[in-house]
Design goal:
The chain is an alpha+beta fold. The chain folds into 2 domains: about 180 residues, no CATH class; about 150 residues, no CATH class. About 45% of the residues lie in helices and about 20% in strands. It contains 15 helices and 12 strands. Strands 5-6-7-8-12-9 form a 6-stranded antiparallel beta sheet. A 4-stranded antiparallel beta sheet has the order 1-2-4-3. A two-stranded antiparallel sheet has the order 10-11. α4 packs across α9, α12 packs parallel to α15 and α14 crosses α15.
Length: about 350
């Protein structure tokens, strides 16, 4: 099944969550780099390919047969597979748990708020996962529970390798596990600029790349922190970029206004730049500005595009831009940079 990054309408929130997971899967040709492959056994390499195929099949089945999985969220299914891999013992091509340990885990999860509020149990989740081939076998003689896949026999070799990787709890491993990011298999991996934008549509990528090139021309520095692409000038944030699967376009850009928290809006170079622009850009500004609700801040009235609005210097713009709004985005970035220059100079 092809999951389109430009898709806008979904039958339900569950379908949207599955789609957002699917468009974020990293194919092995990208994540199973030569450096990673050198450290892998043949079982782990084969397991990586099978893992990617399994998650694609699981996403497709979830999307086409949502009633078999609801009300459990896609994330809860991934969590189960991750915990099976992390806390079990690799045995041949499966993962083995001591029965007492598994029963304790099941009891704990079944009592959690996420499960009790939805009226679900782990047994229901495992039943759903059997649709894509998960086998669950209880050995009465040795008191174990064994998990395996006939169609994907090596998958747990790769999954457990990631779960046993160094600093696994100090990294966004849950995100990497969900998206088959195999660069996490043996060491800490922080997604780069291109990986963080993997799920963006072609139009959104064009907007992001154009904003980046414009920021570079202004000598605004880019850095990445906790999965957010941020741009700073003279130590002050100009704007940041991230993705939100519950909105369209999924790309969001947040841009600051006045750098000086005590600015007189009329005298600040941010608003001087905005008031100098044409009506179309001013209209986008009015539509996308996040108005501050903090009564302790100094709110000032300003007339933009013939409309009087009350703002404070800490207000910022949040926009999920389409291509036709790109000129406005670049204008706001330039205005923010001018405000920083004015503030630091003063």
């Amino acid at each position: 099944m092809y999951f389109d990054k430009d898709q806008q309408l979904f039958p339900s929130d569950f379908h949207r969550d599955v789609w957002w997971w699917a468009v974020g899967l990293v194919p092995p040709e990208d994540s199973l780099t030569e450096d990673v492959r050198k450290k892998c056994s043949p079982d782990i390499i084969e397991g990586c390919y099978q893992w990617y195929s399994l998650f694609n099949e699981l996403c497709e089945d979830m999307y086409n047969h949502a009633s078999e999985y609801i009300p459990v969220s896609p994330r809860q299914y991934r969590d189960i597979l991750e915990n099976i891999s992390a806390n079990g013992k690799l045995q041949d091509n499966g993962v083995s748990w001591a029965l007492n340990d598994w029963e304790s885990y099941v009891s704990k999860i079944n009592k959690s708020k996420a499960y009790t509020s939805s009226g679900i149990t782990i047994s229901q989740c495992l039943k759903a996962l059997e649709r894509t081939g998960l086998n669950v076998y209880t050995g009465n003689i040795d008191n174990t529970v064994i998990f395996s896949y006939d169609k994907y026999p090596k998958v747990f070799h790769a999954m457990q390798t990631m779960e046993k990787s160094p600093n696994v709890r100090d990294t966004p491993v849950r995100h990497h596990f969900a998206h088959c990011e195999f660069r996490q298999l043996f060491k800490r991996y922080d997604a780069n600029y291109n990986e963080l934008l993997r799920r963006a549509s072609d139009d959104s990528l064009y907007v992001a790349h154009t904003a980046h090139d414009f920021a570079k021309s202004l000598k605004v520095q880019r850095y990445i922190h906790f999965g957010i692409i941020k741009y700073k000038h003279k130590g002050i944030r100009v704007f940041d970029i991230d993705l939100h699967g519950n909105e369209y376009p999924t790309l969001r850009i947040n841009i600051g206004t006045c750098a000086n928290p005590d600015a007189d809006l009329i005298q600040d170079d941010f608003y001087k730049n905005i008031l100098d622009k044409d009506i179309s850009i001013q209209k986008i500004f009015i539509d996308k500005i996040n108005k501050c609700q903090d009564n302790n801040h100094n709110h000032q009235s300003i007339i933009i595009n013939g409309k009087e609005i009350s703002l404070c210097s800490r207000s910022r713009i949040s926009i999920n831009p389409i291509k036709s709004e790109l000129d406005a985005v670049l204008c706001f970035i330039n205005a923010r940079k001018a405000s920083i220059d004015q503030y630091i100079k003063d």
